[in-house]
Design a protein that fits this description.
The strands form seven sheets. The protein has a five-stranded mixed β-sheet. The chain is α/β, with parallel strands linked by helices and 617 residues long. A hairpin with a 5-residue loop joins strand 5 and strand 6. The radius of gyration is 32 Å and the shape is elongated. The chain has three domains: 123 residues, no CATH class; 295 residues, Rossmann fold, CATH 3.40.50; 133 residues, no CATH class. It contains 19 helices and 25 strands.
């Protein structure tokens, strides 16, 4: 079985501990690694100093074995350690990038052409018995031959003992996984203040849930805390971020910005793969790109890009859980660019109210502080003092569970998720509701498991209750457990008729005695309709009340009501028909909703979508 350990442990290995071996390297004839660096020692010429001292920890390569390199380590003049996974392909040319990286990170290099060529020859031909597996993103990685996975972060990994090293090969490596304070301090000053605050417990639980997505086989996605300015949304995001790294508005903050290009967000998502991706202020995103960005982040796959030499490079990939804050929903932001969000996009970023009912904005319990602003200030000081300590303990705990039992995700994690879903989600709820609820159930399970691991100090059931409160508020804002497409198409139809009823629906009268008993309904004299959408007439309902009936031209319905929602005309008609808002008739055994309406003078019997009065109720 492959063994995965951190790079810090690699330093402590006995093999290659001496300078003379170049860190375990099988030195080529004519080279020596001395205390002051690497020397070329020809048998019949004067020795030449090539560069400062360094160690070769291992030869590196990805799972596919198609990009071999060397893992180099050295200390600069201040004693700061540097590591560089140098791809050997860079040695094929002038190797300017390699030499520049060594010099930039404090390793002295002889500038003479002969010395540089000797150094590059050494790097190209040296062999090392150790191997390290390189990966392009943080998160869980399984050995090629199988076995328990390891979670890889910059400079360290968490997994079973023994075997091959695994390291993150991102250049430059993410600097966001910073630590300050202690786990005990985080638990006492940050987690303890979450008790009694459903939004804060939920936010911190979401941070613990991120590494569980891949273990549970769930898709990516996120939650957006929407509320007014200065309500505490950013504080909730900072509490979640403090599990992994520094809060917002600090150097190398773990909280990222929506104000980024899609290419920049790809790199951000890779650096947060397997971890939480906190994004502050959705309103800074480009309105026209909101929908596509949500798909990209949730689906976990970047754009395919061509290689300079031809063919495509491997697309960036990730699995991450988003926690966002904003003053407006993603749907309203997209609407600013004249684009609506499809139901699939909405379910990828659940829009939930940040404000807790009856509380002080986001907060429900102030833990002795006089008001919400003072409580937010106390939390800010706490996350500045203690951050980045809970995640390593959580990952170690998870890795131990996975090493003990391969079926832990299904047997333990899955059981908790199913239990929460059974308790809170109606069986008849739409599939979109079940998808959203599963994400919240995973957050609930993560919070409870983190508490069982001794990381939070929360009472049992606190995380489950917080997720249930978020789910209930989301359902209320959503309008129930039905499908979003049906809700959206009903709202769009009602809005269209409400806006254009008199202006774009030409009125016709019922034939009667005053019309001489004619069989066709004549147009109102003098009516002038621009951009006609259909016709309207009155009918008497079962209670004897006269109600307006609207006959909508199918092509107008398709272009102006269904298409902006991303719905096909046939699907949109069927949804309205099942809701009892369109009249239908059977033709050849098939139920049709574009039916032949009554005769209209000068028009005949056009096929129309006949909208029932209930559409306006």
């Amino acid at each position: 079985m492959t063994k995965t350990i951190s790079l810090s442990e690699a330093k402590r290995r006995k093999r290659g501990a001496g300078q003379d071996g170049g860190g375990g390297a099988e030195l080529l004839p004519g080279f020596e690694m001395r205390p002051d660096g690497l020397w070329r020692v020809p048998p019949d010429d004067r020795p030449a100093w090539l560069c400062g001292p360094f160690r070769i920890l291992a030869e590196s390569r990805p799972a596919g074995g198609d990009d071999w390199g060397l893992l180099l380590e050295w200390a600069d003049r201040d004693g700061v350690a540097h590591r560089y996974a140098m791809p050997r392909r860079l040695l094929a040319g002038e190797a300017v990038e390699v030499l520049g990286r060594l010099a930039a990170c404090g390793l002295g290099v002889n500038r003479s052409a002969t010395a540089r060529q000797s150094l590059l020859q050494f790097l190209a031909l040296v062999r090392v018995p150790e191997r390290v597996r390189t990966v392009q993103r943080t998160g869980w990685h399984r050995p090629p031959e199988g076995g328990a996975p390891s979670f890889v972060l910059p400079g360290r990994s968490f997994g079973p003992e023994g075997g091959e090293l695994v390291m993150l090969d991102l250049d430059p490596p993410p600097s966001i996984y910073r630590r300050a304070g202690t786990l005990e301090g985080w638990r006492a000053e940050v987690a303890a203040r979450c008790i009694g605050n459903s939004r804060l417990i939920f936010a911190a639980s979401a941070a613990f849930a991120a590494p569980l997505l891949e273990l549970a086989g769930d898709e990516g996605g996120g939650i957006n805390l929407r509320g007014a300015s200065s309500s505490g949304k950013t504080t909730a995001v900072d509490v979640a971020a403090s599990v992994w790294g520094g809060p917002s508005k600090t150097a190398d903050s773990f909280v990222r910005s929506w104000r980024s290009t899609s290419n920049a967000l790809e790199a951000t998502a890779q650096a947060h793969s397997g971890a939480l991706l906190p994004l502050d202020e959705l309103g800074q995103a480009e309105p026209a790109e909101v929908g596509a960005t949500l798909y990209m982040l949730a689906n976990g796959l970047g754009k395919a890009r061509a290689r300079a030499s031809g063919g495509n490079r491997q697309a960036a990939s990730w699995v991450t859980l988003l926690l966002s804050s904003s003053e407006e929903s993603a749907a309203s932001l997209a609407a600013q660019a004249g684009r609506g969000l499809r139901a699939g996009q909405e379910v990828r970023l659940l829009d939930v109210p940040a404000m807790a009912p009856g509380g002080w904005g986001v907060f429900e319990a102030l833990h002795g502080e006089p008001d919400g602003a003072a409580f937010a200030g106390a939390l800010r000081r706490a996350v500045l003092a203690h951050h980045g300590t809970a995640a390593p303990s959580w990952l170690s705990w998870l890795a131990a569970r996975l090493a003990e039992a391969n079926d832990w995700p299904a047997a333990v994690l899955g059981a908790r998720v199913r239990s929460w879903l059974a308790a809170h989600v109606p069986a008849q709820a739409d599939g979109q509701v079940h998808r959203a609820a599963r994400r919240l159930a995973l957050v609930a399970a993560a919070g409870e498991l983190a508490s069982a691991a001794g990381l939070t100090g929360w009472p049992e059931g606190a995380a489950e209750a917080a997720a249930a409160a978020i789910f209930a508020d989301w359902l209320t804002e959503r309008g129930g457990t039905g499908s979003a497409e049906e809700r959206n198409i009903v709202a769009a139809l009602r809005r269209f008729i409400g806006l254009h009823g008199a202006a774009r629906f030409e009125r016709v009268r019922e034939p009667g005695e005053e019309d001489g008993g004619q069989t066709e309904a004549p147009l109102i004299e003098g009516a002038r309709i621009a951009q006609r959408a259909g016709w309207r007439w009155e009918e008497i309902d079962g209670t004897g009340e006269r109600r307006w009936i609207h006959g909508l031209i199918p092509e107008v319905f398709a272009a102006e009501i269904a298409a902006p929602l991303g719905l096909e005309e046939r699907e949109a008609r069927a949804r309205l028909g099942r809701a009892g808002l369109l009249r239908g008739e059977r033709e050849g055994g098939e139920l049709r909703y574009a039916i032949k309406a009554k005769r209209i003078a000068g028009v005949g019997r056009p096929r129309l979508l006949v909208v029932e009065p209930a559409a306006l109720d």
